[in-house]
């Protein structure tokens, strides 16, 4: 078991309150301290290009790691640099940017040490695993050696120094953080004479800590890392946490000690040397241009400039502008550290990015996350935001809060500045009555708020359960809890559950509801119908294969006096068949339309997110209305047509064959397609999009006239075996005997709208540059094209759309490793060398491991069911079993690049997949798992070994937890004989 680190903390915060610190001179125990000396290491980050930064003292060029230095989906590019305090500064992106150096030079820490730098943070990390965001560190927490300068939660400045027996930490005063969006000079010093660590912020003391009598010990065997923690927590098997995000300039490491007077004087001298004697304003904004050329990133859909987003929410119209907010992790393309992103538009399709609206804050309702919510206009003070505040200190962790903009003070209709109210709006106490049981207090989130006739209404997503003390003994189903008030601040009165599903008879909406939305349903021409639509996202406590795939709705009547919703149909319905339209939010536009926003999950692996630098995007907003037959009408908002550019095709009254011939010259990965087709006696009509010339890649949209079924077939959508494929479909009736189709293509986005009643939202990830064609066919008879129009689409943002980048094709004059993807369903072609852990029983088509998420094994045309080798065999000893498995021996050919999928335990010495030279048994390359079952693809460049006889060996010599390894899709270019 890993030894716990002894961490001594002396902070300026005592008993939860910030108290004044005395920084009077301290009597020295061993003579006067030495003042700061000449640096032993200094990085100015003044480079404008390249992937190295110069260490000025030694003159060495230290590498800057950056995800796009060797990009997978876009052209290679350099790390981001901006104007610094003086010269240039390096932008650390929060998950991939860091500098590796040999060390701090000839540093004698026993005589004192000083570390200082300028930083302008963009976002604070949550404090994952209790570790700081590292600005610079060379430390080993297990041996309590080395040093770290960094930030704890909410920007609190900290410095750690190891003495072998203790790792002492000094924390700056909580009310003196390194503020976001401004330059702060941070300095830390060790004073051996006073036995003290001291911190300075902009030349002023902010914290002290007492150190042991012995001298500090550096961690010389550790690399010195700038921007990344020496012992980071690994998230989802892919992301390194505890990394810095923001600008950094002029990092200096010096021997000697900084005292209060010297710190003040040095800072004054720094300011005097700057133009105007002032620190410039840093530019920490995220620029989406760094992702230009990404072949899969949408261009005319709303999305953040970088990193991760989930559901857009809180759409609101105010003073001529539409505002949308969204769940956002600014530190990387992964879930966590939830903020509210913000964008503004005049038409709901052209967007401008604005500063983040809400961020976790120590003195707020949401110190541990600002989760989803809604917005509504409160008279002249403008919109107010309602959000879910996460606070892990509370028994049930979730409650709702409110934020207001600075509009009344600044009259800025962009609403760039928001302030969270300190107290909660609503919360769910234990035992809150809710129909057949009580509200599930641990699940109380996603407020949806509106005002009507002087009453404010609030829906909060939850579930209904029975409790036995604190344990849930029965789950009845999901619900939305209703509260009302006379004003947004409250007090709010609980009115009971709006509606709920019975898990026994209607299990689809889940055990709890997320993101409940209740909107009036207008008629086809905007008339009032008296009907409402209730939409929910289902949630389950444990892993569920249908999680984050569906949006259900009921049409019914809302009684605003009783606060109850009565559905017209018992079973909930779906209007989107694609399993990508999720997380709805909605509002009523000034002209009376009910409009829904959604998140379009991209269904990519954590590795693909890390390599691309972004995750997910918003769907095209859709209008919903009540059709004369009482069913739901659905179509993209009319404003989507404003994104149209050049018309590429206009076809009228012709055969399918002639239309297909005229489409031969039409291509694109950003298109708007409208078609009206008379099927006549055809049994199937198919539109192929994103089609390559040879048909090896294409995505098929088909309508079966006999089964009245509209489908999307992604079986050949991509040659990438790691891309999710499959078929999605649903029943759709023709409209007056015609098929009316609208298709929006936006790189990986595909949205199809059929007959004004249904949609199908999906993803397609072609690998070929020519996979941009269109094909139209009919089977079983002759169909007639009434009209067919195709437009090229412009981007949603002001910048020009960059062409997508594609990689050159791999060699094709090679054979494959026998049974490289286990498509036979057993170990044919492989040999069990020893042990019991590998057998035919390990080959499975399971898509998840039961208690967790998806494997993301490969899907190929030859093996659409996705066989793979799961190293955990419960019938043969599970993790305790060991063994060795070996492939056939082959001659390496082609370009010598071997790739495979691997997952499982993390033990590079005892648990790995390796490429081995057959002649002498030398391991040429190997890879272990990362403590997760989700596969990641690893690539070995073995071009130097082309022509040699090699084999692949899978080794499991580890027992205990995570003592197994999984592999799939082992691609070895085999020389043909």
UniProtKB/TrEMBL annotation:
Residues 111-261 form the LamG-like jellyroll fold domain. Residues 1-29 form the signal peptide. InterPro entries: ConA-like_dom_sf, GH32_Enzymes, Glyco_hydro_32, Glyco_hydro_32_C, Glyco_hydro_32_N, Glyco_hydro_beta-prop_sf, LamG-like. GO terms for biological process: carbohydrate metabolic process. Gene3D superfamilies: 2.60.120.200, Exo-inulinase, domain 1, Glycosyl hydrolase domain, family 43. One of its GO terms (molecular function) is beta-fructofuranosidase activity. Keywords: Disulfide bond, Glycosidase, Hydrolase, Signal. Its EC number is 3.2.1.26. Belongs to the glycosyl hydrolase 32 family. This is beta-fructofuranosidase. The lineage of its organism: Bacteria, Bacillati, Actinomycetota, Actinomycetes, Kitasatosporales.
